[in-house]
Amino acid sequence: MSAHFDLLLTDPHSAARRGRLRTLHGTIETPIFMPVGTLATVKSLTPAQIRETGAQIILSNTYHLALRPGSKLIRDFGGLHEFMGWDGPILTDSGGFQVFSLAKLRRITDDGVSFQSHLDGAKVFLGPREVMELQMDFGSDIAMVIDECPPYPCSRDECARAVERSRRWAGSCLEIARETGFLDRGHHLFAIVQGSTFDDIRREAAEALVASDFPGYAVGGVAVGEGEPEMLQQIAATTPHLPAHKPRYTMGLGTPAQILKMIGLGVDMFDCVLPTRLARNGAAFTPDGVVNLRNQKFRTVDAPLVPGFDNYTCRNFSIGYLRHLVMAGEILGCTLLTLHNVSFYLDLVRQAREHLEAGDFTAWSRAWIARYEAGARAAGPIDPVEA
C-alpha cells in the first residue's frame, strides 16, 4: 500500500485489480475511465452533466491549453478546476503525444521538443521544466512527464534512443516536482513506459522508472498504428514490471471491449476520445457494438438506445428522436449522444469493479466482450469521422 493508492483486491483468474486512488480533489475508485476534456471542456457537456455520467476524474491536454488560453491565464483564474468549474480530480497529459502526432511540426533534441503551433505557426518549446511549470499552473491532481513516443513501426535503435531520452526527461520532471514541493502538496506525477513492440526494451524502461519511485505509471506508445494483438502484447509486456502498490494507466484508448481486456492485464485507468468523437458524428455505443444513427432503419424506432440503461438519454428519448436530431444537425443530438456514450463507458468500468468484488470478473468480461464483438462484426466498421 502506498500513501495515495490502496490495492483492495486482485482477480484470481487474471491480472485485474480493484483499487482506490486518493487525490487533492477526491478519491477515485479503480478501474476507472477518464472522459477527455482536451481544452478544459468535455465537448458538449456541462460539469454537472459530466458528474451525471458517473465520471470521477477527467483528462485535459497540456499542449493544447498552453497554446490557448495559456497557463498563466488559467493560473490567474485560480487553476484549471476553478477555470472550468469542475471540482473533481483532473489529469493533464504532458504534450508527449503531440511529439508523435505533430511530427511534421516539431524538432526533438535532448533538451526537449520545439514545435510550430498548429494554430498559427508560432514557436513553442516543451522540455521537462516547461511541462512541469505548465501543469503546476493548472493545479493538476495528476501530472504526466514529457516523453517521446516512437512511431510504429520503428527500428530497435530508434526505439532505444527514444526510450532513453524519455527516461532522462522523466527523471528531470521528478526532480522538478520534488524541488518545487509539487508532490509534497499532494499532487501526483506519473511516469510513462515506452518501448514500442520490443518487450525487453519495455521491461528495461519500466524497471528504470520504477527505481525512481514515481507516484504512478502509464503504458505509452500503444494504439499508434499497430493492430489490437500487438497493442495488447505491449501492455502485457509492461504491467508485470510495474509495482503492485502504484496506479497503472494506459493512455489514449480504446473500445469498450479493449478496456475490459486491458483491465484483465492489470491496468487501472483509461482515457479515450471515442465516446465523445463518435457521439458528435451520430454514433452510439451499445452492448452489441456501435449504432450508426444515420442509418435509415432507425427512423421509426420508438425505443431507447439501450433498454433498461439508467442514463438521461435512455430514460427520456427514443432512437427515432435521436436520429432526427443527428440528421437535422441539431446541437442537442451531440449532447444527448455524448451523455449516453460517456455514461456507457463509466457504467462499464463500474460493472467491472462490481464483478471484481464479486469474484467473477473473468467470466463476466469474457461474455461481455464476446457479445460486443459479435455485434460489432455484424454491424461492420464505422469510421468515427464519417459515421
Brief write-up:
The protein has about 375 residues and is an alpha/beta fold.
The domain tally reads: 2
What's the alpha carbon Rg, rounded to whole Å?
A: 20 Å
Give the class-level CATH name of the largest domain: Alpha Beta
Unreliable stretches (pLDDT < 50, length at least 5) are: none
Number of strands: 16
- CATH architecture identity of the largest domain: Alpha-Beta Barrel
Shape: globular
Arithmetic mean pLDDT:
95
> What is the fold-level CATH name, i.e. the topology of the largest domain?
TIM Barrel
Can you walk me through this structure?
By secondary structure, this protein is of the alpha/beta class. It folds into 2 domains: about 5-270, TIM Barrel (Alpha-Beta Barrel); about 280-380, no CATH class. It has helices at about 45-50, 60-65, 70-75, 80-85, 95-100, 130-140, 155-180, 200-210, 230-240, 255-265, 275-280, 310-315, 320-330, 330-360, 360-380; strands at about 5-10, 15-25, 25-30, 30-35, 60, 90-95, 105-110, 110-115, 125, 140-145, 190-195, 215-220, 250, 270, 285, 290. The strands form 4 sheets. The chain has an 8-stranded parallel beta sheet with strand order 4-14-13-12-11-10-6-5. Strands 1-2-3 form a 3-stranded antiparallel beta sheet. The mean pLDDT is about 95.
